[in-house]
Structure formats: structure tokens, C-alpha cells
Recover the amino acids of this structure.
């Protein structure tokens, strides 16, 4: 599929797509179509509502966006429409985007491009009939003449974002038979070479020499050795350095503290934080954002054999602190502990943000609509909240007060990894991570357990969402723009 931005159609098309919001002028806007009286009765521009009208020479699709849509709504509506219509659309389609802002056009293109995404990565009975995206089809994006150049840049950004999101979703949805720590490392190396940022991968021996004891303890029960991935993207105009840390557990059995079998197959998604950081690094480089980012991913499997860590074990960490392991299924915080210490010891970071599919407690608290945000920095919390509302990748701040600190006291080690109670699980996990931040004044933890892998209309089972990529890119843009 090819997308071109024009202010008038150079050739006739077989289908046109019109976008409508719920407002007082809707009836007047619908008057241009045949059978307008019936349209006004039936089409209310509800969110994702689709109405097909037959014109003299083309089909006309009317797509509802609801009331006062945000960019995230454009993405959702356009993705849904093109996903459901991609087998039916003809080879030449016009999409009317007159009056939209650059950010809205970027969202429109982001959404329609995502409409091509297919979960059937490993199916052999692929459909033989090519879709609109697979054919040599043409989409004309119609805008005002004075907006053509600005819209063309927005189209490029929207396509670039969607392409990276699709790569991230592929990684999220891959089973552990096709995804282990070295695969994440290879993904990073390949992306870095393609898009111009540096990647350093530390193998198991190097991790041991460095003293990444918590990471090595988690990986001890798996035949697939860990990888510690450090990425750096630096634009010449960057004024500050941002650290991003992503949990990269490619499969989580829970270890000796074994998870129940129900839905354990979804634990292939326990590298959602790593996926978000990988995608953000790639997209920032593709968009040439004037920022300096350090991305750190500790990657391992949490499995078990005779060498696996056990409840009650005391392990070391890169920080030098000892950790009593109460629950081996609280492994993500262990590998993040080493990574956060590494981040603040080796780099002068203005901000550190870690992302992790960390706790079921966060899902129980916030469900699937928002990630849990933990930080003591009010300005950082507000800026992440703002980006979440803009992109639809929402965050909600939860407390990280010292009232919860005593839950981590251990009689035998400096700290324990789990408090063993069915309350405040996400908060206590965040307090554990805080121990390893060296009291960094601008650190934030995002628990994305409920948002990284979710139900959707695009499949019958949960799948990767690429949550975090658009959130972080918007946040980074805002840091640049003040």
C-alpha cells in the first residue's frame, strides 16, 4: 500500500472514507450525501460506527469518532475500520482528512497502518486473497492545500510509529520457543545497526564478572543464559540524558514458587517492559528526536531445575546489598534492582523510568485501562500523566510513601523481595525497587502488567499492545519542547 498526501484527487477512486465527530453540525455535514434524510436518522457518529453509502462512482464509508476525539481515539477507530475492511476495500481509496491537525493526521495514519496487523505469525494456512495492505493499492489522504507539506511529515511519523509498534507486538506475541534472552539481544543489535544507535550486549560470563548477582540468580534455573543489554541513542542537539529500564523476562514460570497453570501461556508476555524500551529506542532514532537516551534491559527466563533459586535463599546484587528471596515469582524486581543500580552508577541521568509487567496487584487495582505510576517527583508524575492522556496509554499515580518501607525488612538480609501479604503488592514492589535507585530525585516506576498484554477485537486471546512506546515518545517530545 502506498500513501500520498494531496489537496485534490488526481484520479478517480472506488472508495472514500469520511471521518465524523458528534457535534451540532453533523446533520449539515451529512447533507452532501445521497439519502441524507435516512443518514441523519441512522448515523450518529458514535465511536467506531460505520455507515456505507453508495455514490454514483464510488462507495463512501462514514466513520464515527464520537464526541471530542483525542489522537488515541483516531488510532483506535481507524485501526478497527481498516482491520475489518481490509479484505473488502478496492485498490484506490481516498481518506478525507481536511481540517485535522498534524497530530490527528499522524494518529489517523498510525491507526490505519496498524489495521494490517495479524496475530497469526506461525500459521501455515495463510489467506490466499491479498488484503488492501498487501496489494499494490493506493490511499490518497486529502487535506487543505496549505497543509500538504505538514501532513506529509505527519504521515511519515505515523507510519514509522506503526511499523515499530508492529515489530514490538510481534516480539510480545512470540512464544518462548521463539523468544529467549538472546533473541531480545539480537533484536536490539539489528535495530541499532539499522537506525543508528549503539548496543552493547553482556553475556552470562560478563554478567558474572560485573557482579550482576540478582540477574544471575533468577536465570540459574534456565538453560537459556541471561543477557544484559545496554543501548544508547544520542542526538547532537540533546541537552539531558534519560534512562529507560525494561524488565525482559522472556518466560516466567514463577520458578520454585510455581504459577498456576491457568493462563501460564500468557507469561510469554513478561518482557513487556523490555519491549517498550526496545520500541522507544528504535522509534526515537527513526524520528531523530533531539534527545539522549540510555536503554537498559536485563533479560532472562524464570524457570526451574536443580540450580534454581529457592524461597529462603539469600542472594547478592550489583548494589552490594543482600536480598532474602521470599518468593521466586517476585523475580522481575530482582533483575530490575541490578539494572537500576547499573543505570545510576554508570550514567549521569536526569530522569530514570523503568517499565515492568511486575504485579498482579496492579491489575487488581487498576484493571486494564492504566498502568500504575510510582514516583515521589510531582513534576515527573504530572508529565507522564499528561502524555498518558494524550496517547491513550494512561497511567495512574499510586502511593510510594515510607509507610510501606517496613514491609521489606528482613531478619537475615538487607532487604526481602516480597512481603508475603495479599495487600499493597504493587506498592511494596515499587518500594523494593526504590532501594536500588540511590534516592534518584527523578525516578519513576511504571507497572504495566495490565496494559502490555490485553484483550482486543483483533483476536480471541490476549495479545501484545506495544504499550509504552507512544507514551514515552510523547513524553520525550514534551521534554524537548518544554
Amino acid at each position: 500500500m502506498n500513501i500520498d498526501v494531496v489537496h485534490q484527487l488526481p484520479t478517480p477512486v472506488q472508495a472514500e472514507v469520511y471521518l465524523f465527530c458528534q457535534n451540532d453540525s453533523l446533520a449539515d455535514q451529512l447533507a452532501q450525501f445521497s439519502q441524507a434524510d435516512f443518514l441523519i436518522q441512522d448515523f450518529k457518529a458514535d465511536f467506531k460506527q460505520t455507515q456505507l453509502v453508495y455514490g454514483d462512482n464510488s462507495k463512501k464509508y462514514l466513520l464515527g469518532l464520537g464526541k471530542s476525539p483525542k489522537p488515541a481515539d483516531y488510532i483506535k477507530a481507524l485501526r478497527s475500520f481498516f482491520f475489518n475492511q481490509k479484505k473488502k476495500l478496492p485498490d484506490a481509496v481516498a481518506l478525507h482528512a481536511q481540517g485535522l491537525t498534524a497530530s490527528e493526521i499522524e494518529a489517523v495514519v498510525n491507526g490505519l497502518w496498524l489495521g494490517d496487523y495479524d496475530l497469526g505469525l506461525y500459521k501455515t494456512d495463510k489467506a490466499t486473497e491479498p488484503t488492501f495492505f498487501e496489494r499494490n493499492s493506493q490511499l490518497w489522504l486529502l487535506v487543505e492545500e496549505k497543509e500538504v507539506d505538514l501532513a506529509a511529515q505527519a504521515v511519515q511519523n505515523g507510519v514509522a510509529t506503526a511499523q515499530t509498534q508492529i515489530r514490538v507486538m510481534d516480539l510480545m506475541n512470540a512464544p518462548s520457543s521463539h523468544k529467549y534472552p538472546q533473541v531480545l539481544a539480537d533484536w536490539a543489535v539489528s535495530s541499532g545497526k539499522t537506525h543508528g544507535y549503539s548496543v552493547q550486549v553482556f553475556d552470562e560470563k560478563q554478567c558474572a564478572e560485573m557482579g550482576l548477582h540478582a540477574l544471575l540468580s533468577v536465570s540459574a534455573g534456565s538453560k537459556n543464559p541471561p543477557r544484559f543489554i545496554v543501548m544508547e541513542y544520542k542526538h547532537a542537539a540533546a541537552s539531558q540524558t534519560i534512562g529507560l529500564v525494561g524488565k525482559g523476562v522472556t518466560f516466567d514460570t514463577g520458578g520454585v514458587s510455581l504459577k498456576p497453570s491457568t493462563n501460564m501461556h500468557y507469561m510469554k508476555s513478561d518482557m513487556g517492559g523490555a519491549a517498550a524500551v526496545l520500541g522507544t529506542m528504535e522509534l526515537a532514532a527513526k524520528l531523530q528526536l533531539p534527545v539522549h537516551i540510555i536503554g537498559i534491559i536485563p533479560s532472562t527466563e524464570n524457570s526451574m531445575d536443580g540450580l534454581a533459586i529457592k524461597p529462603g535463599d539469600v542472594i547478592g546484587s550489583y548494589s552490594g546489598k543482600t536480598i532474602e528471596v521470599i518468593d521466586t515469582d517476585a523475580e522481575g524486581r530482582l533483575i530490575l534492582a541490578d539494572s537500576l543500580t547499573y543505570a545510576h552508577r554508570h550514567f549521569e541521568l536526569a530522569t530514570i523510568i523503568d517499565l515492568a509487567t511486575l504485579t498482579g496487584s496492579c491489575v487488581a487495582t487498576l484493571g486494564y485501562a492504566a498502568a500504575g505510576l510510582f514516583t515521589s517527583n510531582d513534576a515527573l508524575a504530572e508529565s507522564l500523566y499528561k502524555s498518558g492522556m494524550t496517547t491513550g496509554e494512561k497511567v495512574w499515580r499510586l502511593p510510594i510513601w515510607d509507610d510501606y518501607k517496613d514491609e521489606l525488612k528482613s531478619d537475615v538480609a538487607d532487604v526481602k523481595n516480597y512481603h508475603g501479604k495479599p495487600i499493597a503488592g504493587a506498592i511494596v514492589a515499587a518500594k523494593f525497587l526504590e532501594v536500588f535507585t540511590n534516592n534518584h530525585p527523578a525516578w519513576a516506576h511504571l507497572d504495566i502488567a495490565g496494559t502490555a498484554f490485553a484483550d482486543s477485537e483483533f483476536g480471541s486471546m490476549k495479545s501484545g499492545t506495544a504499550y509504552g512506546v507512544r507514551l514515552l515518545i510523547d513524553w520525550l517530545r514534551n521534554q524537548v519542547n518544554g
In short: The first strand starts at residue 2 and ends at 6. The mean pLDDT is 96. The first helix runs from residue 26 to 30.
